[in-house]
Structures are given as structure tokens and as C-alpha cells.
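WARN retry 2 of 3 for item q-0093 after timeout on previous attempt; input resubmitted unchanged.
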Amino acid sequence: MKCICNLGMTENLLAALDNHYAGVFKYEEVSFINKALRVIPLEQLKEAALKSSTLTFHENFMKELLRWFKEDFFSWVDCKPCSRIGCNGTTRNGGGLQPTVDEAGYGASRVEAHQCTLCGGVTRFPRYNDPSKLLETREGRCGEWANCFTGICRALGYDTRYVYDVTDHVWTEVFSPHLDRWVHCDPCENAWDRPLVYEQGWKKQLSYVIAFSRDEVVDVTMRYSIEHDAVRARRPDEARVRERITQLNKRFNHSPDKRQALRKRLVKEILQMSANNNLGNVGSYEGRQSGSAEWRQSRGEDGSCGSSPAPAIIQTKATSSFTLRYNIVTDLYHITTDGKDSPTVQGWPSLVFQARNLFKKVEYDWNKVYLARNSSDKATIEWRFHCAYPIKKSRGISSIGCVPQRPDTLVLWW
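OK item q-0093 returned
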């Protein structure tokens, strides 16, 4: 069961490479650098870094910068609070809206509509892609976090990369002169030098991880994996992706000396990644920490197996008909017994007796939602019913899967 065909996946990836290549040059704008330097508590971070003697000042400062960014500067958004004055209701993501001219001017190609469960009002959540604007809003999810943090690192003069994982995450790399290598930094997780956390902790099935800077575009996937053969097997049209990376690198107008220095550093980096010599702080790895538990589970990044938390047996007193429908968009079960509707039930695992290697995947950037396998070639899902009265005829499962533009993806008729 594949959620995106290889052709579509490759075209989306090539378009993303072009966008991220162009995006990193915003960090070099003088207006952004000055704006970023005004919000960074530089002396406070320096003082904290000098108090620590575990690493060099450079590494200690970067760890303090990560801590400050996560704890004091930026905020995570699952759903925005209701914007209506006097309303204390919670909101749910109710789909998308067209961006206004101002929102589009700050790189918001899409706007989420967060609908209040109490008053019904809609609060806009523009997904800004302009790092200068993010210095003002100081909120978002991993895209906004990595975008703003990478820009702040560049404003401080660090050799910095914006790292794009095609399985829907982004983070930062900073080059350490002391360690003589690139160091993984994830501001969402306050994670420093933990490159294996995604594969080993979040249980991500990595395919392409591409790093972008003002100097180069580099495939750094192997830094974030120890399962190299499995990663290679997930890479469709690798020749086309490599060709696009080569084309992007030809656009940089470097002097011969700089080009030679970059090539020398890249060769060393490739050797490190091939030999897994830059695994960072190895040890146990946890699932994702940023975002709500429900959101993390929906993405399959909480480190769990994705099975139902407790076996459920559906009780029914139907005498003639019983219908169970699951709407994958709203994550609600709809139950009809002998023609009468029952209250909806939230959460796909809540009525599942048993599920193996299966989880609900929500890709906000691709505007897709589907049930997906974790890693195995096989995934199973089982519902059990206890019928108070004999059922004359069972029609079984009508459909299961993901159909674009069709929310009712699972229907059981009895």
C-alpha cells in the first residue's frame, strides 16, 4: 500500500529542492540579519556557555542557543486558540483557506482554518515561510521552527544548513570547527548532535535528507541512518534526484579557491557518513517530543508501534441493520443501528480490536491523510463485534483505503 506513486513523489521532491535552494538566500539579507541580532540575548547566551566546561565554547553556545530558542523564544502550534473575544473554546483544524495578499507576501502559500468547537468561529493560521516574519510571530510547527532557527544561526555568522527530510520534517546543521564536521541541531526537540533520533527514536523510514546552504546542496541522508541498504531501497528515481542536486550546485558562483575548499570538505563528509563516523551522541533514542500526543501519534513519530492502545469489542443490539463508517479526515466513527445514528466516536484506534504495523498518517504539507504501514510489508487491522441478536446476513467490509477527496474510507455493513 503506497500513499504516493513514485512518479508523484519524485516530482514533489524535485520541486521542493528548488524551493529550499532559493529559500536559504533569505538568511543572507542584511535586513534579516540585523533584525535577528536584535532579538538574540547574545551576552546572556555567552555567559551561560562560559559557565559550562563540558565542551568548547562553540558547542556550549550552540546548545544554549537551542535551549533559549525552544524554551524562551519560539512556541509550538497544534491549533490556534479561538480569536473571538471572550470565547475560551478550543479549536480543531478544519481545512484550508486562501491566503490574503499580505499573508502570501510573507511566503504563506496556505492558511489553516482552525474552527472553534464552542462558538464555531474560524481562526486563521498562516504557514509563513519568511524568516523575517517568523522573528515576529515566533510560532509554528517544525517548518517555521527550523526556518527561523537556521536564519538565526546564519545571522550569528555560523556556517549553517537548512535540512529537509522528504518524510516531512526539517531541522538545522551547523559546522563545528572543533569537531571538524557538521553537527545536527533540531530546535523543535532541543536536540544537539543526535542524528539517529529520527530513524531509531521516531521510527522514520528515511529516503532522502537534503541539506541546503548558501554554498552547496548536499545529500546527507546517510548521516541520519545506520540502515543504509533499507534507505537505498526507498529512493525512487535516484538518478534524477542526483542530477537535480548537481544542477543546483552549478548555480553557485564560487571562486576556484572556495570551490576547492568546499570539495575537500565534502569528500571528508562523505567518508564520515559512509563509515558512520559522525553518529553524534549515541545511546537510547526517544520518540518525538514536540507537538501534542495525538498529533505525534497521527504522524507515527511517537516511537510506538502504532497499534490500538487496548482491544475493543463493539457492542450492538441491532435487529435488522448495523453500519459503522470511519471518516479519516475528521478521525470519527459514525454508527447507525437499525436506521438510528449514535454519537460519534473519536480516534481510529478506539474501536479497533487489534492493529499491527498500522497508523494514521497526516501529512499537513501535502494535504493528505491515510492509514499507513509502519515498516513491515504486511499490516493488519481487526474489528470485533458482539451482537445481542442473531444477524441474518453479513455484507462485511465494503472498503478500506485512502481515496482522494473522499473522507469515508472505511465502511462496515451488517
